[in-house]
Amino acid sequence: MKNSTYIDSRNPKAVIQKDRNMEGIEQQTDLNMEEIATKLRRIREIYGYSQEYVAERMGITQPAYWQKENGKRMPSEERFGQIAQLYNLSVEDLKHQEINSVLIKVHQMQIESLRKKMSVMA
Q1: C-alpha radius of gyration, the chain, whole number
Q2: DSSP labels for 63-120?
């Protein structure tokens, strides 16, 4: 499955990603870099991670991660996978789900994690 990503010249904040599905038919998905960047920043802040920590976990420099989190550069498929794994989310969540839905999911996961920790302590 070959993927290509490029910036839409009509709207520099939108990224067009072309994916080939299982049948080899090309599908186009518009990704909003600004929205994805906001998701990355907000999720990282919820977890209390620094940009340096996330970058280190991804095997990249902090400035390279900063570009992704500030809408200067779209993460590659590999980077989306690494970020999703770090936060126990799906790539679909990061790329296509509405920001508020993703943030609610992150908060719910954190609440569940705290409940488990508290039950172990009791």
Answers
A1: 16
A2: HHHHHHHTTSSPPPHHHHHHHHHHTT--HHHHHHS-HHHHHHHHHHHHHHHHHHHHHH
Write down all domains in the chain, each with its CATH number in brackets.
33-121 (1.10.260.40)
Torsion 20-34-7-10 (CA) sign: positive
Dihedral angle, C-alpha 106, 37, 13, 72, nearest 10 °: -160
Question: Distance between CA atoms of 82 and 43, rounded to whole angstroms?
Answer: 14
Model confidence pLDDT, tens digit, residues 35-75: 999 999 999 999 999 999 999 999 999 999 999 999 999 99
Residue 2 — left, alpha, or beta (φ > 0 → left; ψ -120 to 50 → alpha)? beta
